[in-house]
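Structure in, sequence out. Go:
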């Protein structure tokens, strides 16, 4: 591709035969001027913490920061829904000049007196990082005054990349959990890195119930203060979105001695493997037996339906650009199972070990890219003749304006894509999107102008 920024070249790799570790540059701050698809540090922190259903989120910054992330994840709740309301200190020029600490203090007190919350997160945004308000001190003083948890989230947007925001969110969670460290171990797991966007956490929990494994706490899909504080008593942490939650898993291992495993509940193959891995790690033979029976039954049911779609999809070409590496890996497996080829694959925050897996399982000739920008994505979708792009809200218009089908695998979707039922939703969406007559119409319209 002509015009690739020189510093970006190390983040784009063409899969060659036998390649397993190309040394692709990843897990770094974005290159200046590249217009990364990533969000800012504050947004990264907010998306991890937002699904805690009874937490209050106060954004210390201009109103734009709050509106940008207002109800950013369509996370579903089985309890409270205050998390869907965004609170802001609405900083103005005067506050920037004279400081915003008093305004922040007043805002937190207003929320405390009006709602009697048990858990408040206070986010420091770009301008707060610039003017230097002591958010930590304000949170500490109100926490002590009202004997409750007011937790600062150090997330000025410019202080790193979206992955830095994930870490800041994990630090904020640990700030809470450390107060509840002394609990006896109880049978059960914590699920990390699922945000219940369209009910996925409920699907995973139903599988655990089927296997007789209690779920102690969830991070952070459909979680609550009462459930979160029990987390230090779990036997095992099960990490789905490693990009956002592996840092928390490591902290919980260091602080509470809770071991962790990586899983993925996207696709028949990965879901089955993950359920068996959980049972094996817990050394629970009964759970393993139940998982084997359940997965065999579900796989048979799902395979029978997928078989009907396969003939529509075989040979089609997919481009994938998602947040984390685990999802990209599962999507390659899913497209392979459908007889499709993944011709472009990339992530916003994938780690080195995840890119090694991607390079191992990708077909020869696949374009692999980290932290891509819109120009690169558009170029490779066209060059690699992709029939569909799987991504998030920021990738959708890139595909549509090229006349390429799109599947939302991120915040805005309304149907779950996890577990066995999720596989069916995924296949149905890929089929109806890729085979929709509108793409032929667009191509014929475009060629009539050429
Ligand atoms: S924190 Fe900074 S980059 Fe993020 S939304 Fe606010 S102003 Fe924008």
């Amino acid at each position: 591709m002509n015009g690739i920024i020189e510093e970006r070249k190390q983040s784009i790799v063409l899969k060659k035969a036998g390649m397993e570790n190309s040394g692709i540059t990843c897990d770094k701050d974005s290159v200046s001027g590249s217009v990364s698809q990533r969000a800012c540090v504050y947004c990264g922190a907010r998306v991890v913490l937002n699904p805690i259903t009874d937490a209050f989120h106060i954004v210390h910054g201009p109103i734009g920061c709050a509106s940008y992330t207002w109800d950013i994840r369509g996370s579903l709740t089985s309890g409270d829904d205050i998390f869907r309301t965004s609170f802001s200190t609405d900083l103005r020029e005067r506050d920037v000049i004279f400081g915003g600490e008093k305004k922040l203090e007043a805002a937190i007190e207003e929320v405390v007196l009006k709602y009697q919350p048990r858990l408040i997160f206070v986010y420091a945004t770009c301008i707060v990082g610039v003017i230097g308000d002591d958010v930590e001190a304000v949170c500490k003083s109100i926490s002590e005054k009202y004997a409750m948890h007011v937790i600062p989230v150090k997330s000025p947007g410019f202080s790193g990349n979206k992955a830095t925001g994930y870490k800041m969110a994990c630090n904020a969670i640990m700030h809470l959990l450390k107060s509840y460290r002394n609990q006896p171990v109880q049978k059960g797991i914590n699920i990390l890195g699922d945000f219940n966007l369209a009910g996925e956490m409920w699907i995973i929990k139903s599988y655990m119930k089927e296997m007789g494994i209690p779920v102690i706490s969830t991070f952070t899909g459909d979680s609550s203060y009462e459930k979160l504080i029990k987390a230090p008593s779990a036997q095992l942490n099960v990490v789905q979105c490693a990009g956002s939650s592996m840092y928390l898993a490591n902290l919980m291992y260091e602080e509470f001695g809770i071991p962790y495993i990586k899983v993925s509940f996207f696709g028949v193959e990965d879901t089955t493997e993950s359920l068996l891995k959980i049972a094996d790690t817990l050394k629970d033979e009964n759970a393993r037996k139940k998982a084997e029976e359940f997965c065999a039954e579900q796989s048979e049911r799902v395979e029978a339906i997928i078989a009907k779609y396969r003939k529509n999809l075989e040979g089609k070409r997919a481009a994938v650009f998602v947040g984390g590496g685990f999802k990209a890996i599962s999507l390659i497996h899913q497209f392979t199972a459908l007889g499709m080829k993944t011709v472009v694959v990339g992530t916003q925050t994938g780690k080195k070990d995840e890119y090694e897996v991607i390079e191992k399982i990708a077909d020869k000739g696949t374009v692999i890219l980290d932290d891509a920008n819109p120009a690169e994505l558009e170029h490779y979708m066209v060059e690699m003749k992709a029939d569909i792009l799987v991504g998030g809200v920021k990738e959708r218009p890139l595909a549509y304006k090229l006349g390429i089908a799109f599947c939302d695998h991120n915040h805005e979707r309304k149907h779950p894509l996890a577990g066995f039922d999720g596989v069916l939703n995924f296949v149905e969406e890929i089929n109806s999107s890729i085979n929709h007559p509108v793409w032929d119409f667009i191509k014929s319209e475009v060629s009539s102008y050429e």
